[in-house]
Design goal:
Layout: E1 2-8, H1 16-21, E2 24-31, E3 34-42, H2 43-53, E4 59-63, E5 66-77, E6 84-91, E7 98-107, H3 111-114, E8 119-122, E9 126-131, E10 140-143, E11 153-155, E12 166-167, E13 174-179, H4 208-225
Parallel strand pairs: 1-4, 2-6, 7-10
Antiparallel strand pairs: 1-3, 2-3, 4-5, 5-6, 7-9, 8-13, 9-12, 11-13
């Protein structure tokens, strides 16, 4: 289990901004059966654990002699630096099932993509699961090598997890699939040489163009006579 050492904190003694200048982050731990506690945790220790544990693996928070088994439930980020400025930890009971989101990791290569040029469509990137805290998977791994031809898909029903872990989703929900590549049809503009001009002669030996020209001449003559 991942572990972080923490210290009790009160805002009256040290402001959050001053705390961050010392390389620590303000945090809070809360949960069923315990009183919420304001803490300070080392920035580097938290980043190391957060990168590996994410928000679906148990973390042990040690405050002096007291220890809590927690999940990282919320991380507030600095809008400019994009670094953590506050962390929420949810303490859990090891004998009670909990529900949390677990990220999906895709592995392998799809023959339909590699050999046929198909398009891999990842529909879901995480799934909610229910289990005892100790059984929570850090991630759900899905092998896409089973996607052999176009329109092949992997659904929630195809995912096999350790006994006692239940996915909270419709078994028919699609997780990932392969579609045929799109064919882009470009319409080419016709050049002048490709445009045909109709010169077929009608009865009387005049073509459409000649007939039109003769009509215009007739109109001019009639006008002069008037």
């Amino acid at each position: 289990m991942f572990a972080i050492k923490a210290e009790n904190r009160t805002l009256f003694k040290k402001k959050a901004r001053d705390l961050r200048k010392t390389g620590k982050i303000p945090a809070i731990v809360y949960g069923k059966g315990i009183d919420a506690e304001s803490l300070s945790i080392p920035f580097t220790d938290f980043m190391r654990v957060w990168r590996r544990a994410g928000e679906s693996s148990l973390v042990e928070i040690a405050v002096g002699e007291k220890k809590h088994n927690v999940l990282i439930t919320e991380v507030q980020l600095d809008p400019i630096k994009n670094t953590p400025i506050h962390v929420d930890f949810h303490a859990v009971r090891m004998d009670e099932k909990i529900t949390t989101s677990v990220p999906i990791a895709f592995e392998g290569e799809s023959p339909a993509v590699k050999q046929e040029g198909g398009v891999l469509v990842k529909v879901l990137h995480e799934l909610e699961v229910e289990s005892l805290p100790a059984d929570l998977p850090q991630e759900i791994t899905i092998d896409i090598s089973a996607l052999v031809k176009f329109e092949d898909r992997i659904t929630v029903a195809d995912i096999k997890l350790k006994e006692g872990i239940v996915i909270q989703a419709d078994p028919e929900d699609v997780v990932v699939l392969v579609t045929a590549p799109r064919e882009e049809k470009e319409e080419e503009a016709k050049s002048i040489e490709e445009i045909e001009v109709t010169t077929e002669k009608k009865e009387g030996g005049l073509s459409d163009a000649d007939a039109a020209e003769g009509k215009q001449e007739g109109q001019k003559t009639t006008g002069k006579e008037q």
